[in-house]
Design goal:
CATH architecture of chain B: Orthogonal Bundle
CATH superfamily of the largest domain in chain A: P-loop containing nucleotide triphosphate hydrolases
CATH topology of the largest domain in chain A: Rossmann fold
Shape of chain B: globular
Largest sheet of chain B: 2 strands, antiparallel
Number of domains of chain B: 1
Helix content of chain B: over 70%
CATH class of chain B: Mainly Alpha
Structural class of chain B: mainly alpha
Oligomer: heterodimer
Strand order of the largest sheet of chain B: 1-2
Shape of chain A: elongated
Number of strands of chain B: 2
Number of domains of chain A: 2
Order of helices and strands of chain A: EEEHEEEHHHEHEHEEHHEEEEEEEEEE
CATH class of the largest domain in chain A: Alpha Beta
CATH architecture of the largest domain in chain A: 3-Layer(aba) Sandwich
Amino acid sequence: MAEVKLAGISKRYGDFFAVRDFTLTVADGEFLVLLGPSGCGKTTTLRMIAGFIEPTTGSIHLGNADITSLPPWKRNTGLVFQNYALFPHLTVEQNVAFGLEMRKVPNAEIGPRVAEALRLVRLGHLTDRLPRQLSGGQQQRVALARALVFRPDVLLLDEPLSNLDAKLRQEVRVEIRELQRKLGLTAIMVTHDQEEALTMADRLVVMSEGEVKQAGSQRELYEHPADRFVAGFVGRTTFLAGELAGDGKFKSRGGLTIACENKTAIKGAATLSLRPERVSVAAAPANGTENSVPGEVEFVSYLGALLDVHVRVNDRERIVAQIANREGVYAPSVGEKVHVGWAPAAASVFAGTGEAEE
Amino acid sequence: MTQAATAARIDDEGGGSRLSAATLIGPATIVVAAGIIIPMAILFRYSLNQFKPGLMMVEALTLENYIKFFSDPYYLTIFSTTIRVALTCTIICLILGFPLAYKLARTETRFKNLLIMLVVLPLFVGNAVRAAGWMTVFGNKGFLNTTLISFGFIDEPLEIMFTETAVIVGIIAVNLPFMVLTLQSVIEGVDRAVEEAAFSLGAGPWSMFWRVLWPLALPGIIAGTILTFILGMNAYATPVLLGGPKFKMMAPLVFGQFQLNNWPFGAAVAFLLMLTTLILTVAANLLMQRRYRR
């Protein structure tokens, strides 16, 4: 295992930057997740590390070696594909042995190492099956064993869970994470699923339009998003468009005046982001919080442990509050007049309105 | 439900699928039977007859036509030439066709259909017309020789026309599109990610080809080689026009015997040609499939 160092890598197609100036170091043993919508450049970045795409500029180091222009077969990276890409004509055992054979590992050593890798992914009993005789989850685990057996310097995962059903996905997430910890693997995973990213990563990188928007821990991204895009992509939030009034107040387009933590640097149009779980709902105006806005409950969605309460506060704006579904907690119903409240620190303000609605 | 009832229901379903299978396979089967099996049966019967000059065909039940073929070096040479030419053409078609088919299969432009049309384009011209074209290229005063001489590469014209080389080149030109199209459609079905998986696991291009692409493309390779081999074995116009009067292959020989009204011997040669093609094709398949059973 080794650290991966990406220094200012870009990939340009004509005038279009698929990835622009990506600089990041993935520490030895770290599980890094590249998160972003489709077309944000996360897969291109992963494929540049794997060697299928050569960066237009910048360099990639794996451990101490510069691998920027090395072909994929000389890189010692373990890649797990979205559709697993198992060799359909080879058995499970032969699939896993492939990487060892290519590395000219002595035959006597291949058998035990393949068996060990299959035992790690709990598939020791299926060695003679062909890929088409396996379930999706089993194929996924063969792909993982095949990528791990030759002890790659870095494990690369390209949306490895997107073809599994929801329940299996939860299990495999934990499995991959445990395996990665146990073996001390450096891993880079690409996904567009924020829940997957949040549960698996040591550190996340949010990408959009080929650029890194923010890199950091789950808490950093969620509580201190760098910009409007990150706030919207990681977790759920209510956006209010408007502008800063200068005295620590935010004036929304719908006419709300909201106290927030001072960000005098922002001039002109701005967006306020408000996490639903930081908003309280009460029948009377709240007295503990500085912001309290009257409104009418327009919609309630029931999520089991939680309730999402959508409160219309004026003609243009609606605020979502997420409240616990517990005995003794006030649970309004549709049509009720309520007050929503939150502390100034609960909201973040960003420059620009983007495509802000609500 | 009782077992008997279940069995009856399954039987019913079986009956239904048998019926629809019959309607699906039926028409083609009838055409094959009427158009191929019946004439072949008649031809086989003819091959056991005798040929008497003046009397033409005489009813008999003898193997003398087959014995005549195998005891005369003249016919055996034609026989071996035919197999050699067909094999050479097939192998060269495979070597030339595979890279082309691969590139075609992996191309992702909107011109893909146009490129495929370009591969098929040679087939728009009949064999005889194409052979005539080759004659103008290969002849002593043909394009190739005049060009080479005018550039001073050679002094005397090369003897290409009316040689085995000319025939092989001509047949390859006819058969290559069949090979390319068959391979292309199969390679297209091989997931690109599987090739990338091989690369990422440490396989260079050559290892990837032999360990992954070749075995996965094998159905196409088998189909393509069968097709080109059969076409090569049965080539008629190309050997006649490019091989000239002295160069002989089996198909022209068959036709020649019919022209001489020696139907029994012509039928025997035709039968041998078909049988040899069949045996070699089946043998090659068994061999290739045994190597990659999975």
